[in-house]
Specification:
Layout (H helix, E strand, L loop, with lengths): L11 H7 L22 E2 L5 E3 L2 E2 H8 L3 E5 H15 L3 E6 L6 H10 L2 E4 L2 H9 L7 E3 L6 H10 L3 E4 L2 H13 L4 E8 L21 E2 L4 H10 L4 E7 L10 H21 L5 E3 L17 H19 L5 E4 L3 H4 L3 E13 L3 E6 L8 H5 L6 E2 L8 E7 L8 E9 L7 E5 L20 E5 L2 E6 L4 H7 L3
Parallel strand pairs: 4-20, 5-6, 5-13, 6-7, 7-8, 8-9, 9-10, 9-11, 11-12, 12-13, 15-17
Antiparallel strand pairs: 1-2, 2-3, 4-14, 14-15, 14-19, 16-19, 17-18, 20-21
Helix pairs in contact: 3-10, 6-7, 8-9, 9-10
C-alpha cells in the first residue's frame, strides 16, 4: 500500500468543531522535551535518535515492541533528586515503578536508597548489590517468609501496614535475635487529585492505619511496647501522578500532629517522617510537573513550619520518587500493522503490542503522547486512536492523538514516558511475549531485560 492509498480519518478542522480534543501541534515532527528523555532528538535528516542511536536501527536490532531506556537521563534524574534533598534527607527510589538489576546498580552508584514491596523486588535488590540497610520494605500483606528474609538480610526499615503486621514482624525479629527498625504507615484522610485506583490516603482503601479514629495512635503504642521493634518514624503516601502540593501540606500537618501526640503521651520524638512519592510527570504537553528542587524546597518548608508550630525537632525527611525518575526516561517503540479510518470519527492505528506491554490506559484511563519516528512527514494531521493486537476492545495504548495522514503499515511510532509501570505491569495476555528493556547510552545499546520467548512460556506449562 502506498503512503496515500488508504482513506484518511478526520482532519483537525473536523475534530475541533466537536469540542472534545485539543488542537493538533503546529509541527507533527517536533518532539516535546517535556515528554521525551533528554537525549531523544530528531535530526535534520528526519531520523529520531536516542543516546546517539537511530530508532530504526534499534528496531532492526532488537525488534518491536520494545522499551528503550535512556540511561543517561535516568542517572541525571536520580542525581537531581539526590542533590535537591541533600544529606539531611533520604531519597528512596520506588522499585515498583520499574526494577532490574541494572537499575539497582545505577541507584547504588548515584547514592539513592530503594524501597521494595515484594519478595521478588527484595531479591532483585539484594542480588544486584544494594546494601540491605538502604532498603525499605513496603506492602499491605507481607508474608512471613518475606518478612523473615527482610529481617535476616538486615533491611533498613520495614513499613508496618496493619496491627497484625506489628505482631508478625516483632515475633520474627525476636525469633532471629534482631531488633528491627520500623515505620508505621498511616492514612491521613487526604483525597489526592488523581485516579481513584491510585489515590492511597483516603480512609476507604487497603493501605495503612487510619489517623481519624485513633488507630494510628494505638499502633504507635503497640510498636513502642515491643522490644524487638525500633519505631523510627511515621510514613504517609497520598497517591500517584500528583501535581498539586496542597495534599502534601495537609498530610504533613496531620502526621506532625501525630508526632506531637506521641511526644506528649510517650515522651518520645520519632526521628523520621516519610512523605512517600507520587509526584507526577508529563505524559502529554498539557502536563506541568515540578522539578525536584522545587519539591524538596516545598516539602522541607512544610515540615519545618509544622514542627516549629508543634515545638518539635524537625525529623529527617524521606521521599520515594519512582515514576518521577524512571517514567520520562523510556519510550516504547511499535511497528504499525493495520490502519482503519472511521468516517467522521477517528482512525484506528493498530500496533504490534498493546495492553500486554502498557495496561495503564485500560486500567487508569491514562493519557499518552505518540509520534512517528521512522521518518518525517509533511502530511496534515489526523486524529488517531493507537490500539493493540489483543482480543479486547479496551486494548488501547493512546486514546486520542494526532499523527500524519500518510501514516502507513511498517512505519515506526513511539510512545514516550513509558518507563514507569509499563514493563512492571506487563503480562502474557493472549500469550503475548513481554518486550525487552534496552538501555541506551553514549552510542551503545544493551539489553537489561531480555525479550521473552515461546520457550519461556512453555517452560512454565507443566501440563
Amino acid at each position: 500500500m502506498s503512503r496515500s492509498a488508504h482513506p484518511a480519518g478526520p482532519r483537525h478542522a473536523d475534530v475541533l468543531t466537536e469540542g472534545h480534543y485539543s488542537a493538533p501541534p503546529a509541527d507533527l515532527n517536533a518532539l516535546d522535551p517535556k515528554v521525551w528523555s533528554h537525549t531523544v532528538s530528531r535530526g535534520e535528516d528526519g531520523a529520531v535518535r536516542v543516546g546517539g542511536l537511530e530508532v530504526s536501527a534499534l528496531a532492526e536490532e532488537f525488534g518491536t515492541p520494545a522499551y528503550f531506556l535512556d540511561e543517561s537521563d535516568f542517572r541525571e534524574r536520580a542525581r537531581a533528586w539526590r542533590t535537591a534533598f541533600g544529606h539531611d534527607a533520604d531519597v528512596f527510589y520506588a522499585g515498583k515503578a520499574f526494577l532490574s538489576r541494572a537499575v539497582v546498580r545505577w541507584l547504588h552508584e548515584e547514592g539513592l536508597n530503594l524501597d521494595v514491596c515484594s519478595g521478588g523486588e527484595l531479591a532483585t535488590a539484594l542480588s544486584a548489590g544494594m546494601p540491605a540497610d538502604r532498603i525499605a520494605f513496603h506492602g499491605n500483606n507481607k508474608s512471613t517468609d518475606e518478612i523473615r528474609t527482610a529481617v535476616e538480610a538486615g533491611v533498613g526499615r520495614i513499613v508496618l501496614d496493619s496491627f497484625q503486621e506489628i505482631v508478625r514482624v516483632a515475633h520474627i525479629a525476636q525469633s532471629l535475635g534482631r531488633r528491627q527498625r520500623v515505620q508505621i504507615r498511616v492514612t491521613v484522610g487526604v483525597e489526592a487529585h488523581t485516579h481513584e485506583f491510585i489515590a492511597t490516603a483516603h480512609e476507604d482503601q487497603k493501605f495503612g492505619i487510619a489517623l481519624a479514629d485513633g488507630q494510628a495512635a494505638e499502633a504507635v503504642r503497640r510498636a513502642l511496647a515491643l522490644d524487638a521493634l525500633e519505631l523510627v518514624g511515621i510514613h504517609s503516601h497520598i497517591g500517584s501522578q500528583i501535581f498539586d502540593m496542597a495534599g502534601f501540606e495537609v498530610a504533613a500537618r496531620r502526621v506532625v500532629a501525630l508526632l506531637a501526640a506521641v511526644r506528649d503521651e510517650h515522651g518520645v520524638e520519632l526521628p523520621e517522617i516519610d512523605l512517600g512519592g507520587g509526584l507526577g510527570i508529563a505524559y502529554t504537553s498539557d502536563d506541568d510537573p515540578r522539578e525536584p528542587h522545587e519539591i524538596a524546597k516545598a516539602l522541607s518548608e512544610i515540615v519545618t513550619r509544622e514542627c516549629e508550630a508543634a515545638k518539635l525537632r524537625t525529623p529527617r525527611i524521606s521521599v520515594e520518587p519512582g515514576r518521577a525518575i524512571v517514567g520520562p526516561t523510556a519510550f516504547t517503540l511499535y511497528e504499525v500493522g493495520t490502519i482503519k479510518p472511521l468516517d467522521g470519527l477517528r482512525t484506528y492505528v493498530s500496533v504490534d503490542g498493546g495492553m500486554s506491554d502498557n495496561i495503564r490506559t485500560a486500567l487508569y484511563d491514562a493519557e499518552y503522547s505518540v509520534a512517528l519516528v521512522s521518518r518525517t512527514s509533511e502530511a496534515e494531521p489526523m486524529l488517531v486512536r493507537v490500539v493493540g493486537k489483543h482480543c479486547e476492545s479496551g486494548d488501547i495504548v493512546v486514546k486520542d492523538a494526532f499523527l500524519p495522514a500518510d501514516l502507513a503499515p511498517g512505519d515506526l511510532i513511539a510512545v514516550p514516558a513509558t518507563g514507569a509501570y509499563c514493563r512492571s505491569m506487563a503480562s502474557n495476555y493472549n500469550h503475548a511475549l513481554r518486550p525487552p528493556v534496552v538501555a541506551v547510552r553514549d552510542g551503545a545499546a544493551r539489553v537489561i531485560v531480555r525479550r521473552e520467548t515461546e520457550e519461556d512460556l512453555l517452560r512454565l506449562d507443566v501440563g
